[in-house]
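#help-structures
NK: newbie question, is this the right format to request a structure? protein is GNAT family N-acetyltransferase
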Amino acid sequence: MNSETKLRKAEIEDRDVIWEIIQQSIERRKQDGSTQWQNGYPNIGTVESDIAKGFAYVLTVDKEIAVYAALILNDEPAYSTIEGAWLSDGEFVVVHRVAVDGKFAGQGMVKKLFDHIEDFTRSHGIQSIKVDTNYDNIAMLKILESKGYSYCGEVLLADGMRKAYEKIII
């Protein structure tokens, strides 16, 4: 199967599809026994805000939305205080709210997403990518390790401590 994957900015018309994908991911996290995303965040307002601010991106497979992520440039207040140390202090892309449509789960789509994010980062001359995840999000921890992200320490987000990672791109 030679599917075409593309990373593009999400539009307001994508809101309901994105929200459905996030709801599926919330339920999968719950079934996995995770505490992540079990307190009303993210919600439809989060999606609308991401779209309005230009943070919302989707990975499409043959024009169908497979993965959602928020990409934020140089702005994550929680990252200014880390128990540990970031690899760099230059410009960075923050990756938040990664969610995969259930019908694409287990097909390596998040790895493809990170490939596209790395291309995006490189093409914009941005130094690195920073990301955090919950301690019990085993799938994301494995993906970050496989993609060469370095564990930098812990950051405190609104709903608790997260493992923080960074990858130098340029």
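mod (FA): yep, format's fine, and the tokens are attached above. Helices lie at 15-31, 44-53, 109-123, 138-146.
NK: thank you!
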